[in-house]
Amino acid sequence: MPGHRSYALLCPIARALDHVGDRWSLLILRDLHAGPARYSDLMAGLPGIAANLLSARLVDLTASGMVEKDGAGRGARYRLTDLGRATRPILFELSRFGARLPAPAEPVEPGNRRHVAVTLAAAAERVAPADLSVRAEIVLDGQPFSFVASRGRVSMEEGAMLAPPLRYTGRYDLLGPVVAGTVSFADHLDRDATLESLDGTDAAPFAALLAEALDVIGGRR
Amino acid sequence: MPGHRSYALLCPIARALDHVGDRWSLLILRDLHAGPARYSDLMAGLPGIAANLLSARLVDLTASGMVEKDGAGRGARYRLTDLGRATRPILFELSRFGARLPAPAEPVEPGNRRHVAVTLAAAAERVAPADLSVRAEIVLDGQPFSFVASRGRVSMEEGAMLAPPLRYTGRYDLLGPVVAGTVSFADHLDRDATLESLDGTDAAPFAALLAEALDVIGGRR
DNA sequence: CGGGATCCGTTACGATACTG
DNA sequence: CAGTATCGTAACGGATCCCG
Q1: Of all protein residues, which has its CA closest to the C1' atom of D9?
Q2: Residue A213 within any structural domain of the chain
Q3: Do A148 and A210 share a domain, yes or no?
Q4: pLDDT (0 to 100) of residue B66
Q5: What is the distance between the alpha carbons of residues A213 and A128, in angstroms, rounded to a whole number?
Q6: Which of A199, B131, B196, B216 is 20 to 30 A from residue B104's alpha carbon, by CA?
């Protein structure tokens, strides 16, 4: 709510946009869905944002009760509250819609891969069987995430996993054709990525879950 | 894409926001989900928007392929394309999130009730059995909508229905407590609204669908 | 050096007035 | 009725500076 430029309508959509509709707000939330982050982590994931804007948005989101600040000074971290986590379906649907749109001519490279976490976790949760339990590390362009599915819930947070049973290693840009449906996930695993079992666990259920999640993102399920 | 201030990122969320993230864009789409509308209809549903902004947004949304213009001059109408209709899940999730937030102190009254259509239709579709067929007129604050559920799909468009089998008549503001869960839908029908069968059709399935849809909006399902 | 705050030129927004 | 034109104001974006 910067400068109190509010829609002030009865409609819940307008109310939501009063809190998350400002420029950068949803992208900041997107990054925070990958776990707590420092100011500079967020800067790295949001190419083009001005420092004052990031500050202002973090203040706004905190005032709205969606973000909390842990600590102060050098090691301060921002994390989502429960209300902030409730934005996941919004981000997920934005992601599905965005997948239908043509890619921009000159994409800027973000400095990290945090942005994939929301989309992939939410998509996987749409198709995860309630009786499936998976722990796996996902490494994208060298950046590790810990992926956990359990009782129909899926989370994906930035950071290496302790003793992961499974590990997917690949490049973010090579997932694009899989999402678009022009390359099958099986072919992707053959040619462009690796999926290893580190303790003998069967990798097939995890692979199937990823394949279905990418179908969801691509709008094929 | 006003002034081409684009996020230009690889992330599909950023790509989506490049097309629908500008101020007013999602609220314009929201109104158009209730059916084609003239310029002045949209102005009435968007209190506070400036005329030049509405013009500019309609141009942007048309350029993005989400909106089409029918006719020219006095009777021109704007309508959603298939791509524009694909924004419904985004609006629906925004609506569910907005329902969790405190209502603004001084809500401005919009000049029409078009904004309810997306939310109610999307919510009803979440719970509509595939074998349920319902045609009903919904009149909110005197404004009629035609509500149709069939084969698991639900639509709700502004405008009176031809020979409706059922008719719900009520006030928008009195639905708030039902969404919030403080008043049951049954009590709402008893005290605050009317539900009539105009040709002997059983109103119960329609009532049950509405009740469940309001639960969905309120986050209880 | 990370985590911001300050300053300033540019861009978008919002209100009103005006035109076909 | 359906917009366009104008203009003051507010927000954004980049750079620089400050503070621990």
Answers
A1: A3
A2: yes
A3: yes
A4: 97
A5: 9
A6: B216
Are residues A73 and A142 both part of a single domain?
A: no
Q: What is the CATH number of the domain that holds B41?
A: 1.10.10.10
Are residues B76 and B137 part of one domain?
A: no
Residues B47 and B129 placed together within one structural domain of the fold: no
**Claim to verify: residue B74 and residue B135 sit in the same structural domain:** no
Q: Where are the alpha helices (DSSP H) in chain B?
A: 12-20, 25-32, 39-45, 51-63, 82-85, 88-99, 116-127, 176-180, 185-191, 204-217
pLDDT of residue B221: 86
Residues A77 and A135 reside in one and the same domain: no
Say whether pLDDT at A1 is over 50: no
Contact A26 B21 (CB under 8 A): yes
Any A CB within 8 A of B13 CB:
yes
Q: Confidence band (pLDDT; 50, 70, 90) for A219?
A: confident
The number of beta carbons lying within 10 Å of the beta carbon of residue A4 is 7
Residue of B nearest to A117 (CA): B11
Percent of chain B scored above 70 by pLDDT?
Answer: 95
pLDDT tens by residue, B34-79 = 999 999 999 999 988 999 999 999 999 999 999 999 988 888 999 9
Q: At which of A86, A108, A137 does a domain end?
A: A86
Using CA atoms, how far apart are residues A2 and A56, in angstroms rounded to an integer?
8
> Domain for residue A104, yes or no?
no
- Mean pLDDT (whole number) for B109-132: 92
**Tens digits of residue pLDDT in B201-217:** 999 999 999 999 999 99
Domain that holds residue B55: 12-86
Average pLDDT, chain B: 93
Residue A161 to residue A135: CA distance in whole angstroms: 9
Q: Which residue is nearest to nucleotide C13 (CA to C1')?
A: B53
Quickly state the pLDDT bin for A51 (edges 50, 70, 90).
Answer: very high
Query: How many degrees, rounded to 5, is the angle at CA A92 between CA B24 and CA A3?
Result: 35
H or E segment to which residue A138 belongs: strand A134-140
Counted domains in chain B: 2
Q: What angle do CA A3, A7, A10 make, to 5 degrees?
A: 140
> Does the pLDDT of residue B83 top 80, yes or no?
yes
Question: E strand or H helix at A63, and its extent?
Answer: helix A51-63
Contact at CB, A30 and B20, closer than 8 angstroms: no
B162 and B39 in contact (C-beta within 8 Å)?
Answer: no
Cα A113 from chain centroid? 8
